[in-house]
Specification:
The protein is α/β, with parallel strands linked by helices and 496 residues long. It contains twelve helices and 27 strands. The strands form eight sheets. An eight-stranded mixed sheet has the order 3-19-13-16-12-4-7-8, with helices on both faces.
């Protein structure tokens, strides 16, 4: 399990053993640099390793300490730290073009689709009506630009895992007027746990020997790519950052208007926590500053309290609005160096390794005027699994210009809690098990486990639990209506 530790910042205070480890790491990185074949590769690697060494130094400083959050110092966000979205002043259409001319949209596009049984970038998975995450994102920004006569650019931050394939995929948008920019986040070497040395032996080593260091790398990588400077030279002052798999993360003009008028340098979108979100990071006040609190920072005896919807009512959606000049300033000040460090132990090819990461939301404490906005749940529609995909593909939603619209026939504005079993985990298996997506308009909860298939035009209402025990199979016939039912055992209807 990953642990998050507060950084002490800097090389001072390291033990002699840790100082030796740091010197050894520098020497090994120099050896890696010498395997580069071109000057460009050497320069790029050297620049990236400056950031890696900062992380590694922090790791040495904090790795022997336990989580250091003092629970008694945690307070609810101070008054004015979290505003209600509904109370933000409306952005007038006459103001929209001027504000949008200051904005770029940046999608975090570093993830693979492996958890859903797919190869390649997750953004290439078909979500609805044969449109992928990336297709939908392009539709959203194209529609925005067309409506207001502007040219908001779309920026994709890829990882080394997704970059090459993403470049091939975006070729199909060449006929679009939308400006699509791409850059790679950093590629850092995994650290061998036993020796505290890099896992790769060469710049060109196996991709599994490297890792992308979390979303907070967006700030430094944006500068290293040259886009931080170029965007500002073109008059862009703000960037809207979100995960590419969050289909609800569209440009909200009211938030943009508030961002500009309030002169805030950082706004985090939060939304009300449900039972499905109990592990999500939340915004607190800590030592007089707004701070993102993640579950890995919580003492063991306080985890249930952290999960409580009563005490911690909101969580971070990772929709972030950030000032570009402020990013520049804070990078110059080396401010992000003291961000909380995520130490993520893993096993790769039978060897214990460590990768070091930071979360972009944790940067909130460094920006002037930073605060949160509590947004409707419709702005947080992530697709992390086929259970999420099932809901998005159902009649609960329609799509207009890339925007998901909740069905007005839905009695309550909440979506059902869906848990599809391991047999549905891969997208290919999931698709094979549904002849068509059931009617979910009146569904509250669905659990499906085991070898289960669904015919056409099935309707699910209330709470439905379907369990096929090991060795059994359940086929839900076409046209079936299940309302508050538990189905178990073995059920097959064969054509004759």
């Amino acid at each position: 399990m990953a642990a998050i530790l507060r950084s002490t910042s800097g090389e001072n205070g390291l033990s002699s053993a840790d100082t030796t480890a740091l010197h050894n790491m520098r020497a090994k990185l120099k050896e890696l640099e010498n395997t580069c074949r071109t000057k460009e590769e050497k320069h790029h690697f050297s620049t990236e390793m400056e950031g890696f060494l900062k992380l590694f130094t922090e790791f040495l400083a904090v790795r022997k300490r336990k989580n250091v959050i003092d629970w008694s110092k945690i307070k609810p966000p101070a008054e004015g730290t979290v505003l209600e979205h509904a109370q933000l002043p409306a952005c007038l259409d006459a103001e929209a073009a001027r504000l949008l001319s200051k904005l770029a949209v940046l999608k975090l596009n570093g993830g693979l689709g492996t958890t859903m049984g797919c190869t390649g970038p997750k953004s290439a998975i078909e979500v609805r009506s044969e449109a992928t995450f990336l297709d939908i994102t392009v539709q959203q920004v194209e529609a925005l630009n067309s409506k207001y006569g502007v040219s908001v650019p779309l920026i994709l931050m890829n990882s080394f895992n997704t970059h090459e394939q993403t470049l091939k995929i975006i070729e199909k948008y060449k006929g679009s007027s939308l400006k699509i920019l791409t850059f790679n986040q950093s590629r850092y070497p995994r650290i061998l746990k036993d020796t505290l040395t890099p896992m790769p032996g060469s710049y060109y080593d196996d991709p599994t020997h490297w890792f992308p260091p979390g979303h907070a790398d967006v700030f430094e990588s944006l500068r290293n790519s040259g886009f931080l400077k170029k965007l500002q030279e073109q008059g862009v002052e703000y960037v809207f950052i979100s995960n590419v798999d969050n289909l609800g993360a569209t440009v909200d003009l009211n938030i943009l208007h508030h961002l500009v008028e309030s002169k805030a340098e950082f706004i985090m979108e939060l939304t009300d926590k449900t039972k499905a979100d109990v592990k999500g990071g939340t915004l607190i006040e800590y030592e007089g500053k707004a701070k993102l609190l993640e579950i890995a920072q919580v003492p063991g005896d306080k985890v249930e309290e952290f999960k409580s919807i009563k005490k911690f009512k909101i969580f971070n959606t990772n929709n972030l609005w950030v000032s570009l000049p402020a990013i520049d300033r804070l990078l110059d000040e080396n401010a992000f160096q003291s961000m909380d460090l995520i130490i993520n132990p893993k096993v790769e090819k039978g060897k214990g390794v460590v990768q070091l990461e930071r979360a972009a939301g944790a940067a909130i404490q460094y920006f002037k005027g930073s605060h949160g906005v509590n947004v409707p749940r419709t702005r947080f529609l992530p697709v992390k699994s086929t259970s999420d995909l099932f809901v998005i593909q159902s009649n609960l939603y329609s799509m207009e210009e890339g925007n998901l619209i909740l069905n007005p026939m839905k009695a309550f504005p909440t979506v059902p809690n869906v848990k599809l079993g391991d047999e549905f985990k891969k997208v290919s298996d999931y698709m094979r098990r549904f002849e068509s997506i059931p009617d979910l308009l009146d569904l509250d909860h669905l659990t499906v486990s085991g070898d289960v298939t669904f015919g056409k035009n099935v309707t699910l209402r209330g709470t439905v639990i379907i369990v096929a025990n090991h060795g059994s199979r359940i086929d839900i016939p076409s046209g079936t209506v299940l309302e508050n039912k538990i189905v178990s055992g073995n059920l097959r209807i064969l054509d004759h």
